[in-house]
Design a protein that fits this description.
Layout (H helix, E strand, L loop, with lengths): L6 H17 L19 H26 L3 E12 H7 L4 E9 L3 E8 L3 H8 L14 H21 L6 E7 L2 H4 L8 E11 L2 E9 L1 H10 L2 H7 L3 H12 L5 E4 L7 H5 L17 E5 L2 E11 L2 E7 L7
Antiparallel strand pairs: 1-5, 2-3, 2-4, 3-6, 5-6, 7-8, 8-9, 9-10
């Protein structure tokens, strides 16, 4: 036998459904959190870094093209945050790896260049026509020539990264077995990859920055301002209310004076200390050691109080 519901029962069911829907709002959901994501660079911050390095890529394209007297194209391929161990896994067996000192942070970054384009670059700089060759180990003379190219890359990085305030200084080539000692392998690094194309040959130019550098980059690029702008007006008002409930030390005292040590030595209970101040010198209300107002000590019921005045209102 089917039961027919009355209007009051139907209204009660709808109200219960509404209460259940409001209790299940997205704001009340609890989601799992992975602590490995802490300090992860957001997509907006990566876009800001990419814009900065696009400028570097264009400047390096013009500089190397004029130097090599050949068609050169440098373009940003990717900007990502990965562990340094993953960066090391991507380094090919034939690669030119060097350390770059970053001032004023006193940190070290790693620059890796594929040797695919190295023989062609060296041939162009020695007056040749830029013949493409298979990647191979370089001689001592060829290494010194390629070091000059890396120094030019560092100069262009310094020029493009003026908003960040970093100076890139080439140190020396590092053997791949020594590279792992420059940055802890488990540390998150900011990895920038550029494609270097010389005529028809292309290779990768990779940079790995330690965490201290990536944090400085984000601060300089306005990451803190971005986070602050996310606070709503209601949140800022609530924060002001909470700060207003905090207590800070305050004192009402006379200005500092110098008193002869002999007078302090002879002080006794009931002694009168003559201060080198006019009798009508106002006291100073200080909070946290900062002088806020000139004031006069007064009474307010059973408590002491300070009658505030502008600096020129109470005269000596």
């Amino acid at each position: 036998m089917e039961k027919e519901l009355g209007q009051e029962e139907i209204d009660a069911l709808f109200q219960a459904a509404r209460r259940g829907a409001s209790a299940g709002e997205p704001g009340a959901k609890v989601l799992p959190w992975s602590f490995s994501r802490s300090g992860q660079i957001s997509n907006e911050q990566l876009r800001a870094i990419s814009m900065l390095n696009d400028i570097f890529a264009r400047n390096l394209t013009h500089h190397l093209g004029a130097w090599f007297r050949s068609r050169v194209q440098v373009s940003l391929v990717s900007a990502e945050q990965i562990p340094f161990s993953e960066f090391l896994d991507r380094v090919p067996e034939l690669a030119w790896v060097s350390s770059v000192r970053l001032e004023p942070l006193h940190a070290v970054a790693v620059l890796e260049m594929d040797l695919t384009t190295a023989p062609q670059i060296i041939d162009l700089l020695l007056g040749g026509d830029g013949r493409a060759e298979e990647p191979r180990e370089l001689t001592d003379i060829e290494e010194s020539i390629l070091a000059g190219v890396v120094e030019a890359v560092c100069r262009e990085l310094t020029t493009a990264w003026v908003p960040v305030g970093l100076t890139f200084l080439f140190e020396k080539r590092q053997m791949q077995t020594q590279t792992a000692r420059l940055i802890p392998v488990s540390e998150k690094t900011l990895c920038l990859s550029f494609e270097l194309r010389v005529s028809e040959t292309s290779g990768l130019l990779n940079l790995a920055f330690p965490a201290v550098v990536s944090n400085a980059i984000l601060r300089r690029l306005g990451g803190e301002r971005t986070r602050q702008s996310r606070h709503t007006a209601e949140t800022r008002h609530r924060m002001q209310e909470l700060v207003g409930q905090c207590h800070t030390e305050a004192a009402l005292d006379l200005p500092r004076v110098r008193v002869p040590a002999a007078e302090l030595r002879d002080l006794r209970a009931g002694s009168l200390v003559r201060l080198p101040l006019p009798a009508r010198t106002p006291a100073q209300l200080r909070a946290g050691g900062v002088m806020l107002f000139q004031a006069a000590p007064v009474g307010c019921g059973e408590r002491r109080a300070a009658h505030l005045a502008s600096p020129g209102e109470i005269r000596a």
